[in-house]
Amino acid sequence: MKIVKSRPDLCTGCRACMIACSKVLYKVEDPDKSAIRIKERSGAESGYDIFVCNHCGKCISICSVEAIYKAKNGAVRIDAEKCVGCYMCVGFCPEQAMFVHKDINEPIKCIACGACVRACPTGAIYFEEQD
Amino acid sequence: MAGKILATYEYTPAKVEKGYAGKTLYINLSEMTIKEKPVTEKMKEIFVGGRGFGLWYLWNAVSSDTKWNDPENEIIIAGGPICGITQYPGSGKAAVVTLSPLTGCPMDNNVGGYFAPLLKFSGWDALEIQGKSDRDVIVFIDGNRGKVVIEDASDEPADTHLLAEKLTERYADSEEDKRNISVVSSGKGAENTLIGMLNVSFYDVKRRAVRVKQAGRGGSGTVFRDKKIKAVVVKYKGVTGDSNNPADKEKIINAALRLHKEIFELDKLQNRMREVGTANLVEVMNDYDLLPVMNFQYGSHPDADKITSKVFREKYFTQNVPDNCWYGCSLSCAKAVDNYEVKTGPYKGQKVCVDAAEYETIAAVAANCGIFDPEYVIEANFYCDTYGLDTISFGNIVGFAMECYERGIINKEITGGLELKFGNADAALELLHQMARGEGFGKIAGQGVKNLREYILEKTGADPKLLRDISMEIKGLEVSMYVSKESLAQQGGYAFANKGPQHDEAWLIFMDMVNKQIPTFEDKAEALHYFPIFRTWFSLQGLCKLPWNDIVPADNAMTDEPHKIPAHVQNYVDLFNGVTGKNITKEELLLQSERVFNFQRIFNLKMGKGTREYDMPPFRLLGPATKEEYESRAERYDKQLKELGYDIEGKAKEEKMTMLRQYRESQFEKLMDAVYKRRGWNKNGVPTLETAKKLGIDFPDVVELIAKYQV
Questions:
Q1: Structural domain range at position B42
Q2: What are phi and psi of B339, to 5 degrees?
Q3: B250, A102: Cβ pair inside 8 Å?
Q4: CATH code of the domain containing A36
Q5: H/E element holding B183?
Q6: DSSP conformational letter for B45
Q7: How many folded domains does chain A comprise?
Q8: Is beta strand B126-130 parallel, antiparallel or unpaired with respect to B74-78?
Q9: What is the pLDDT of residues A56-109, one digit of tens each?
Q10: What is the DSSP annotation of B47-72?
Q11: Is the dihedral of CA B623, B627, B629, B632 positive or negative?
């Protein structure tokens, strides 16, 4: 499958990826509802950090209601019907790439659609084939 | 006729708002009536929820003459306003309140499983059951359809592993629906002893198995079966992270994510609750000489390494499954042994999933009986659970009987042929099966340590003073599993506890003895004021205590009061305010608890107890009660006596024992005075009128009652 990879040195912090993501996932332009997050570095370091799911699947065994599964295309997905909104997976994500919003029961998570990659003007995020 | 519907009640399920459904489901089994009662603003203001509601309903239901098996006695099961949030670890607990057959006073338990959350989302903040049925019944609450039925259950099995599974199958529409069912049940042991407990189920989606958590202490299961309840079942489909309709969800989410991340990063470095649950305490307690061995005579044993968490981790506990007893508990301490083949008794040969084993159970059924065999632990744990018996009381009873047997106080004539020597696992299991059947010595022993002591005194003419010294009960309840001989604060924690000596009220042993955080009398009195009150709060809310201090933030040691875990206290303030929309401070959080805590103390008084004399422990709780104990730690005790200025040169062991006893008893009495004073109680341990007034629990009947005890 293809997963989203990043080159933070190319990121300008425009957040076009976040807008594109929220449009796909929740049909709104709201960076707070995006599954990819750009965070400006604090302190002496300049630039941005990019947090996005690499579909490692560690969250699957964390979930006690089997709401997280590997889809046919290899993407790790959440079944919103089964999810009880406990956010254990969010706290236990080694990539810190799952997010929450008070109006959304389930965690916000990448579905590997590539919308963010298409929206990025600098190539700071890109799709890469992974086994 | 089995399955026959005896009563039906239809209702429109109340929508939960800010943590409350606003209604209580009341069932009277004598009259077979079902009705709803409003949860008033005043109840919420004074009693908050959970244990607070339970005590209030029970207070109004019973008189000072009511006995545990009178129809007036109730069983109340209630969560609390925070109960049922899915985000914060440990938020699915039920408080169970009833008059105890062991103590004659109100008993409270705090139990996991899905019952309390599903009950609330079905429209009920509390379930209040009164009366006694003339035949076995099941109460079924359907929270989606808005229907409560009482059914004849004459043909159903009583034992939990059979019944909870059968009822989960019966009431679920499909495999996926099973997680929406929770069963409260007990077992045959609860019918034939006074140490019966309640199991509360949840369906483990990953194991495809019904699991149970226990409301263990003080005989709640005995009351349940005395009312002829086989099971109470709740069904509710549709739990989400918003089911409580919280006022400010972000406050909850922020606290929850902080804690999930802490657990993710630090649990493996701290207590490894996710790997081994509370079993990690076996080796810790053994190392610090705090593990009860052979009826609390000793605090460690060379064979204890056979029952440590390492052994359970490597051979028995299933790993890498989220062992939580309600959604969102990433601390996940509810370990289980899968595919265990039962070795004895009526279920021999069956393969079962055992909710085993917690520290308390390992210590009680094994170390305290001088048995160091992990498979015996699992076997005894399985049978205690399915028979509906409290493992802590069971382990105490067997340990006490074994000591009496080894000291020649009782013999095979009394035990019905059982060779009750320390270490005899077969005899312990036989006694367990006898308790369940209500036969032989098991029937006598199943009445609890206090009653067993009276029986032995009557039958043997043994020395009553010795028997009191070594019978580990206070107020009629058996002591939980920590040797408190070297911790004055823990002695008070056990002895003054409202329901009897259970560590959930005050567990100060490490703070006092190991970390030396409370060295002076004033410090200890303050700790015995603060912690019992703080810990009471969990059971008002539907929360578990473990995520408070069994995981701590990385920078906790740098805070002003590390033993209070200030960051987590702030989380609780945020949770309460986030759910209810109120704006309490941490001081007001304590005030909520202090009210209920004092009310419970006064309730003991109403039942004819609750004064200083009922807070007196057996001497073994305070120090070495026998020569063997003194001898085993002679260096420690000799050193202490010397440091205290006693001249022990050439003194006989008996003389030194007397010196140590006098000293420790005087320290205990002094502690009692200091604690009572700090709590706003008089010298007799009764809250003063001023205290009751300050707390806003000065109801006319309370004032009338406590006025009699003011001098």
A1: 5-235
A2: 55, 40
A3: yes
A4: 3.30.70.20
A5: strand B181-185
A6: H
A7: 1
A8: antiparallel
A9: 999 999 999 999 999 998 999 999 999 999 999 999 999 999 999 999 999 999
A10: H-STHHHHHHHHHHH--TT--TTSTT
A11: positive
pLDDT of residue B204: 96
On whether both B74 and B199 belong to a single domain, the answer is yes
Q: How many domains does chain B have?
A: 3
Helices (H), B388-424: 391-406, 412-415
What is the C-alpha separation between B665 and B619, in angstroms, rounded?
8
- B278 shares its domain with B198: no
- Give pLDDT, residue B1: 67
Task: Provide, as residue numbers in chain B, all residues whose Cβ is less than 8 Å from the Cβ of A92.
Answer: 260, 264, 330
Put simply, the answer to whether B322 touches A87 (Cβ < 8 Å) is no
Take residue B250 and report the two structure tokens written for it. Answer: 């972000």
How far is B124 from B78, CA to CA, in rounded Å? 9
Half-sphere exposure of B329 (CA within 13 A, CB side): 30
Q: Is B238 exposed, middle or buried (0-12, 13-18, 19+ CB in 10 A)?
A: exposed
A65 and B179 within 8 Å at the Cβ level: the answer is: yes
Q: What is the pLDDT of residue B321?
A: 83
Closest by CA to B98, choosing from B75, B79, B116, B77, is B75
Q: Considering only CA atoms, which of B618, B604, B444 is closest in space to residue B104?
A: B604
Question: Of B478, B505, B528, which closes a domain?
Answer: B478
The overall pTM is greater than 0.90: yes
Q: How far apart are alpha carbons B491 and B488 in whole angstroms? A: 5
A87 and B263: CB-CB below 8 Å? no
Give the CATH number of the domain where residue B525 resides.
1.10.599.10
Q: Give Cβ neighbours of residue B250 (< 8 Å, ≥ 6 apart).
A: A102, B578
- Residues of B in Cβ contact (< 8 Å) with A62: 322, 330
Q: How far apart are CA B576 and CA B593, in angstroms?
A: 13
Reading the block at residue B224, the tokens are 């349940």
**Per the CB < 8 Å rule, is A87 touching B240?**
no
- The ipTM assigned to this model is 0.96
- Residue in chain B closest to A106 (alpha carbons) equals B241
Asked whether residue B633 is domain-assigned, the answer is: no
**CA of A93, closest CA in chain B: separation in Å?**
9
| pLDDT per position as a tens digit, B281-320 | 999 999 999 999 999 999 999 999 999 999 999 999 998 8
Measured CA distances, A35 to A13, A59, A72, A75, A93 (Å): 15, 15, 20, 13, 13
pLDDT band at A131 (very low <50, low <70, confident <90, very high): confident
Q: What is the mean pLDDT of residues B144-164?
A: 97
B542, B50 Cβ separation under 8 angstroms: yes
> Which residue range is the domain that position A33 belongs to?
2-129
Do B501 and B102 touch, CB atoms closer than 8 A?
no
| C-alpha dihedral, B260 to B265 to B266 to B272, nearest 10° | 80
DSSP reduced 3-state for B430: helix
